[in-house]
Amino acid sequence: MLKVEGLEKNFGKNKVLKGVNLQLKEGEITVIVGPSGGGKTTLLRCINGLTDPDKGSIIINGKYLYKDGVASSKKDEIEIRKDIGLVFQSFNLFPHMSVLENITEAPRVVLGLSKEIAEKKAVEILSFLGLLDKKDNYPCELSGGQKQRVAIGRALAMEPKLICFDEPTSALDPGLTGEVANLIKKLAVEKSMTVLIITHDMTFGTNVADRILSMDKGILNEEHMYMK
C-alpha cells in the first residue's frame, strides 16, 4: 500500500530525513515512535504530499507521488492524495461548521458529491463512530475524544486506502487513549484500512500496533521493536 525508498529532506543545513525506507502492507497498523525532532512528522508530511522531499521516492497504492525526489504531475498528485487520509494532532476541525458539515465539506468540494450523497455517507460514518447524535453540534460543544472521532470521520469521508495519524492521543485525557486504540483497530479490521501512526506514547503504540518501528535523528530503524 505504501513504499518509501531512500527519502531525504533538508531544512537549510539540518538534514531531517536521512535515506528513509518504509513499506506498509494493506490492512496493517504500523506505529513509528521516537523523540521530538527525530523526523517523524516530516516523514508523515512527505507521505501526505504536504512537504516535498529532496531525494527518494514515495509510492502510494502502486503510483508514484514522488520519484527520485521529483513530484508527480499536479493532476496525478490530486488523484494519488485522494488515497491518503490525515488526522492532525490538533484535529483542525472547522469551528463554524457543524459535525455533519465538517465531514461533508471535502467530499462535496474535492470529490464533487451532491449534498444528499455526501450527507448520507456522513451519517453512515457517524454511526460507525458512535457520534450520530452529535451531527448537528459544533466543535466547541464536543469533548476531546469526540473531536478526535470527528477528525477521523472527516478523513474517512474521502474513502482513503491509507490513513495517517499525527500524535492521536496527545490532546486527549489518558483515559481516552484506549477508546482511540480500539477505534483504530476497528478501522483496520472492518474497513480494511492501512494505518500509519506517529506517537510518543509507547503504551498506546503497543496496544494498537501490528508492528512498531523507531525513528531518531532522521533515521528509521527497520528492525521491529515490537510485532504481534
Automatic annotation (TrEMBL):
Pfam families: ABC_tran (PF00005)
Assigned keywords, A-Z: Amino-acid transport, ATP-binding, Cell membrane, Membrane, Nucleotide-binding, Transport
Topology term for the membrane: Peripheral membrane protein
Cell compartments where the protein resides: Cell membrane
Stored SMART domains: AAA
Family indicated by similarity: Belongs to the ABC transporter superfamily.
Protein known as: Arginine transport ATP-binding protein ArtM
Species this chain originates from: Clostridium homopropionicum DSM 5847
Gene name tied to this protein: artM_1
